[in-house]
Amino acid sequence: MLMSTEILVALIGLGGSAIGSLVGIFANSKLIDYRLGAIERKLDEHNTLIDRMYKAEKRLDVLDVRVDELEKR
pLDDT value at position 15? Predict the structure, then answer.
């Protein structure tokens, strides 16, 4: 039994829409992965800075105490 032209055109359109949607989903997924990776790198840099500042402030507190001790002598 032969398919009518309208059904064949509808099936081709359905296939094209499905393929286009899947390609769009995969492309969007790659973009989201890229952006998340960039955000993670920035977050790592930020956390490194926070750790360094914490250590510097701790060291500064120790130096302040030593200066106070030296001034008392």
Answer: 96
Between 28 and 73, the higher pLDDT residue:
28
What gap in Å lies between CA 10 and CA 49, rounded to an integer?
58
What is the DSSP-derived secondary structure letter of residue 3? Answer: P
| H or E element at residue 17 | helix 5-72
State whether residue 4 is helix, strand or coil.
Answer: coil
Give the angle subtended at the CA of 34 by the CAs of 43 and 17, to the nearest 5°: 145
Per-residue pLDDT, 2: 66
Q: How far apart are CA 10 and CA 12, in angstroms?
A: 5
Give the count of beta carbons closer than 10 Å to the beta carbon of residue 49: 10
- Nearest-angstrom CA–CA distance, 23 and 29: 10
